[in-house]
Write a structure and sequence with these properties.
Subunit structure: Heterotrimer of A, B and C subunits.
EC number: 6.3.5.-
Enzyme class: ligase
Largest sheet: 10 strands, mixed
Shape: elongated
Structural class: alpha+beta
Organism: Microbacterium protaetiae
Number of helices: 18
Strand content: 15-25%
Protein name: Aspartyl/glutamyl-tRNA(Asn/Gln) amidotransferase subunit B
Number of strands: 15
Distance between the termini: 74 Å
Radius of gyration: 28 Å
Helix content: 40-55%
Length: about 500
């Protein structure tokens, strides 16, 4: 695939004003699917979690999942939306191999929630209000696996496999209004917005929000208009971007790509585009369909959803804190400075730090792991930190450090094993033999060997030059592959010098 010509980002912003829009799909973690009793699970054998209605088999009838409706209302309320007194499902007609019945049950002109806004915090603490147009319920489609092509893409694939396990999984799609005024911070705002949505759905407990699993996916819309022009430009929609980092990169790339085309007098095609994580570019998908192309009509097999006022107020009363309020509370509870807390927030690991602390780690230890060591490994792998390890496992690792079983250096080796899938921290310690040597006999033997190799050091220590012990400590640590307790080694050296 030939790379498109792009313009310098700063130059693009001199000539054009970016206008953004985001469609975030949130898979709900209900026990069953949106319109059937089939299990809503992840990782099962392909085509095992199915019911006739998921495939659109003749005679099958959909039944609305009540819990999914409750979750959708809660999410709408958390986004500051009004909840419709009556909303209706519709059929969105299109053919694709992962859509067994050739239409998707969605909501069109009567969504469950509408007209809201969410406050998004940027890296320097700037707050931006993002307007929400609607949040509507729908079902997910199945999943295609392309075999033989590059990077799992359909281009060049020998054949494709379809797994209908995901077909019918409950979704809420959150659609923003056009976002104007982000300017140079447009890419950053995109990532921060998706991070905020993720924090909201996790706090509500309605989704696992694992982007690497597709629980939360973002379609990023970008258009440009010449400076001073009021009419919006033609937009592109980059589909199913699956990490905050990728959202930021995709928005930036589309701004640069579109600017290069427009500056040369070209036109932008309204289309979907695919994000390529490996090369950092987008490629053309299909011409973007308008609503008329989907031939929406009311779903004839489902009645309107009419939630009672009492239910809406009950769900409103159960809402967790708004994200901004929660951040202020956690910062105070954890005792972090502004800079320390900003490191956590900007890293997109606020939830992970909170869960690690809840699992038994101190705030300081949790912040250390999630803002230094885990991001280091994530950057090397080109992944999000939240994808690598579970917070409970990080807390377990820290407990081994606190107990003296591991030094910080050894703990980093264990973390690498955790990321590689070698097991729990304790299993990795046992398998690799990484526990700190605390047996004084073994330490004294290593100290004596080091002193024999450097006989002048002991005399220096006896003369009061205690810092000379560092040479012996280093030799012992090297001999014992970093598994000695350095503090205990120092104590034993000083005891030997006092004899």
């Amino acid at each position: 695939m030939m790379a498109a010509k792009i313009m310098d980002f700063d130059r693009a912003l001199e000539l054009f004003e970016p206008v953004l829009g985001f469609e975030v799909h949130v898979e709900l973690n209900t026990a069953t699917k949106m319109f059937s009793a089939a299990p809503n699970s992840f990782g099962r054998e392909p085509n095992t979690d199915l019911a006739p209605v998921d495939l659109g088999l003749p005679g099958s009838m959909p039944v609305v999942n009540e819990q999914a409706v409750r979750y959708s209302i809660s999410l709408g309320l958390a986004l500051g939306c009004s909840i419709a007194e009556s909303s209706r499902f519709a059929r969105k007609n299109y053919f694709y191999p992962d859509l067994g019945k050739n239409y998707q049950i969605s909501q069109y002109d009567e969504p469950i929630a509408y007209e809201g806004e969410v406050e998004v915090e940027l890296e320097d603490g700037t707050l931006v209000t993002v307007p929400i147009e609607r949040a509507h319920m729908e079902e997910d489609a199945g999943k295609l696996t392309h075999v033989g092509g590059a990077a799992g893409r359909i281009q060049g694939a020998e054949y494709s496999l379809v797994d209908y396990n995901r077909a019918g999984v409950p979704l809420v799609e959150i659609v923003t209004k056009p976002i104007i005024g982000a300017e140079h911070r447009a890419p950053e705002l995109g990532a921060a917005y998706v991070r905020t949505i993720r924090d909201i759905v996790l706090s509500l407990g309605i989704s696992d929000a694992r982007m690497e699993r597709g629980n939360l996916r973002c379609d990023a819309n970008v258009s440009l208009r010449p400076r001073g022009q009021q009419k919006l430009g033609t937009r592109t929609e980059t589909k199913n971007v699956n990490s905050m980092r990728s959202v930021q990169r995709a928005v930036r790339y589309e701004i640069q790509r579109q600017a290069a085309i427009l500056a040369e007098g070209g036109t932008i095609t309204q289309e979907t585009r695919h994000w390529h994580e490996d090369t950092g570019v987008t490629s053309a998908g299909r011409p973007k369909s308008d609503a008329d192309d989907y031939r929406y009509f009311p779903e004839p097999d489902l009645l309107p959803v009419v939630p009672s006022a009492e239910l809406v107020e009950q769900l409103r009363a159960a809402l967790p804190e708004p994200p901004a309020v929660r951040r202020r509370r956690l910062k105070t509870e954890w005792g972090f400075t502004d800079l320390e807390f900003q490191d956590v927030a900007n890293g997109g690991v606020l939830v992970e730090v909170e869960q690690t602390i809840a699992a038994g780690a101190t705030p300081t230890a949790a912040r250390k792991w999630w803002t230094t060591e885990i991001p280091r490994l994530a950057n090397a792998a080109g992944r999000e930190a939240s994808e690598l390890v579970e917070p409970s496992a990080v807390a377990e690792l820290q407990k081994l450090v606190d107990a003296g079983t591991l030094t910080d250096k050894l703990a980093r080796q264990v973390l690498e094993g955790m990321v590689a899938g070698e097991g729990t921290p304790q299993q990795i310690v046992d398998a690799r033999g990484l526990a700190v040597v605390s047996d004084d006999g073994a330490l004294i033997a290593a100290i004596d060997e080091a002193l024999a190799a450097q006989p002048d050091v002991l005399a220096k220590i006896k003369d009061g030059k205690v810092q000379a012990a560092g040479a012996i400590i280093g030799a012992v640590m090297k001999a014992m592959r970093g598994q000695a307790d350095a503090a205990r080694v120092r104590e034993l050296i000083l005891e030997r010098a006092a004899e």
